[in-house]
Design a protein that fits this description.
The chain contains 3 helices and 11 strands; from the N terminus they run βββββαββααββββ. By secondary structure, the protein is α+β, with helices and mostly antiparallel strands. It has a 6-stranded antiparallel sheet. Strands 2, 4, 5, 8 and 10 form a 5-stranded antiparallel sheet that branches. The N and C termini lie close together (10 Å). 40% of the residues are buried.
């Protein structure tokens, strides 16, 4: 089955039915993809990093872990992961992010703006966009100080993550736009829905 390509610095939204598997691929390596999930039947039920950390008892999420909603329901199960490094701490980059961290560059609407535009057709307002599950993003946390840093992804060309939908979902997915998150360059993201 051929994949769908998300162009650099853009995003999309689509439905993923219960039992289907979403495979997200970093085709060229060193590229982040922000993922959001909403319950198709009620988009006020949304992916939650806090619930996920609580129930999974880890911030390092990979194969064998599940992603939970704000209503304590499992939304996605990670069934395969060749990258093994993702972030669920940092919010999608936005115009404000660019003004704050990259004042020397033109402001870009970022993943937040791309997700807001893509999810509007499902009735999701901007203020309902939560922290994303940032696929392939490398955010080390210092064990003593708690300080975060954003490092280039360790993902190699062709690395992927496969997640099974545990309910009918609306998925938002991007090819991230932030300089530090992607090692200073911007590349595409591919995805496949497996029945």
């Amino acid at each position: 089955m051929s994949g769908i390509r998300i162009a650099p610095r853009s995003g999309t939204a689509f439905e993923l039915r219960k039992g289907e598997v979403l495979k997200v691929i970093d085709p060229e390596g060193v590229q982040v993809s922000d993922l959001l999930a909403f319950a198709l039947g009620d988009t006020r039920e949304v992916i939650s990093n806090g619930r996920t950390f609580d129930y999974e008892e880890t911030i390092k999420l990979s194969a064998g872990n599940q992603l939970w909603s704000n209503r304590s329901n499992v939304m996605l199960s990670i069934i395969e992961d060749t990258a093994g490094c993702h972030d669920f701490l940092l919010t999608p980059c936005s115009e404000a992010t660019f003004r704050h961290f990259y004042p020397e560059h033109p402001a870009h609407r970022g993943c937040f703006g791309n997700l807001a535009k893509a999810l509007a057709k499902y009735g999701v307002p901007e203020d309902a966009i939560p922290t994303a599950f940032n696929l392939f993003m490398n955010v080390p946390v210092d064990a003593k100080s708690g300080r975060l840093s954003v490092e280039p992804p360790s993902s190699k060309p062709g690395d992927f993550i496969r997640m099974r939908a545990e309910m009918d979902l609306v998925i938002g997915l991007t090819a991230c736009s932030a300089y530090a998150s992607n090692g200073g360059s911007f590349k595409p993201i591919d995805y496949i829905i497996e029945g």
